[in-house]
Amino acid sequence: MPIAANDPTKKTWLNVSENSDFPIQNIPFGVFLTRDDIITIGTRIGDYAIDLGALHQLGYFKDIPLTDDIFLQDTLNDFISDGQKTWRLVRNRISEIFDASNDELKNNKGHREVVLFSMDEIEMQLPVQIGDYTDFYSSKEHATNVGTMFRDPENALLPNWLHIPVGYHGRSSTIVPSGTPIRRPLGQTIPNNSKSPVFGPSKLVDFELEMAFITTDANALGEPIPVSEAEDYIFGMVLFNDWSARDIQKWEYVPLGPFLAKNFASSISPWIVTLDALQPFKVESPEQSPEPLPYLRLTGNHSFDINLEVDIITESMKSTTVTKSNFKYLYWTMAQQLAHHTINGCKVNSGDMMGSGTISGPTPDSYGSMLELSWQGKNPIKLNDGSERKFIEDNDTVVLKGYCQTESIRIGFGEVSTKLLPALKTNK
Ligand code: CA
């Protein structure tokens, strides 16, 4: 089925600013609370939130086989379950409704009033109920930097890294949407040169610049998803800040890997940009050597050119961009991650979320975490308000942004913005 919604020449009758992340070619999906306290599934064009539940009730999707309440839900899981063909029909139809040449909704004031909201009239929610969350570790630059700092520069990558998209099962209960503040976690850490741990607030809270993809029901228990089909089961992507407490991590991670250092919070951008909308931005992923095992082999372009940046806003409200990276630097592709995740028969459900791992680029100004940017705190980062950061301080706000750009079109993710609150008081 052609993706008519991606036509770069298409214009909309809605007013959209030139540098908007959300032109009519984007049509992301999200869930929001309206001014009338109703939760609905919606999309966004420019600075308009569009109530898809209302559009469906008014008959605008009558030619697409959809259940009556598909958009009157507080998560996208059922819609995502309907599969790629339905996502395409709905995205193409939305594109048609808002096309500059279509007067149907444009000239119906009554309908427009119940369908369109300005962004300040709504509150974005988590777009899916996340059943399971997996985090990969797929940036060679990031894995090399961390291996160099914590182990041995000569053997920075462990022997499995170039053969396996390494990952671990995280926790979905603490994934929150943009705008939800989080707390500095408490935990056990081991002071330098000490044999006994201490308890208290983490001193080394960090962001991880990641993206995450969201899957549909893809397979039955016991059945792998072939790497060549894996992208068909990916609904879309969000920005993902995988908050990390480096000092807790260092003490706890042997031998089973990340635990409490990683599961206190992860923050996502609220609009899921579909993989369909990202098709014009497909690029080659880095060359893989040694060649992966056959079940992970895939030719052609399977990465995406997505510009990424992280800003820190301090209490003085001054903002500093601390890094610029790109999704295309990742060594392992999403298709390889999903094929690997299911090669043992692991079942993947609608709404599952898979983090990419920290996305570091090749140069020091493109690293995806403070751990790397400040090189374990040895090189503090200067901020625009004159202060310095080794890691994230209380009341700092961390903002991740991402967008794709060609000469004719820009498709963006908006942002995920999260304030770090001080730790809860403790009597030890
Ligand atoms: Ca991570």
Question: How would you describe what is shown here?
Answer:
The chain has 428 residues and is an alpha+beta fold. The protein has two domains: 121 residues, SH3 type barrels; 289 residues, Fumarylacetoacetase-like, C-terminal domain (Fumarylacetoacetate hydrolase, domain 2), CATH 3.90.850.10. 15% of the residues lie in helices and 26% in strands. The protein contains eight helices and 26 strands. The strands form seven sheets. Strands 6, 7, 8, 13, 14, 16, 17 and 22 form an eight-stranded mixed beta sheet that branches. The protein has a five-stranded antiparallel beta sheet with strand order 4-3-2-1-5. The chain has a five-stranded mixed beta sheet with strand order 9-26-25-20-21, with no helix packed on it. Strand 25 and strand 26 form a beta hairpin. The protein is globular. The model has no long low-confidence stretch (mean pLDDT 97). Calcium ion binds next to loops. The site of calcium ion has 7 residues, from loops.
Draw up the topology in text.
Blueprint: E1 30-33, E2 39-45, E3 48-51, H1 52-57, H2 77-81, H3 84-97, H4 109-115, E4 116-118, E5 123-124, E6 133-136, H5 140-150, E7 167-169, E8 175-177, E9 182-183, E10 186-189, E11 198-201, E12 205-206, E13 209-215, E14 234-241, E15 244-245, H6 246-252, E16 266-268, E17 273-274, E18 282-283, E19 303-304, E20 307-313, E21 319-326, H7 334-342, E22 353-355, H8 370-373, E23 381-382, E24 388-389, E25 397-405, E26 410-421
Parallel strand pairs: 6-22, 8-16, 9-26
Antiparallel strand pairs: 1-2, 1-5, 2-3, 3-4, 6-7, 10-11, 12-15, 13-14, 13-22, 14-16, 14-17, 18-19, 20-21, 20-25, 23-24, 25-26
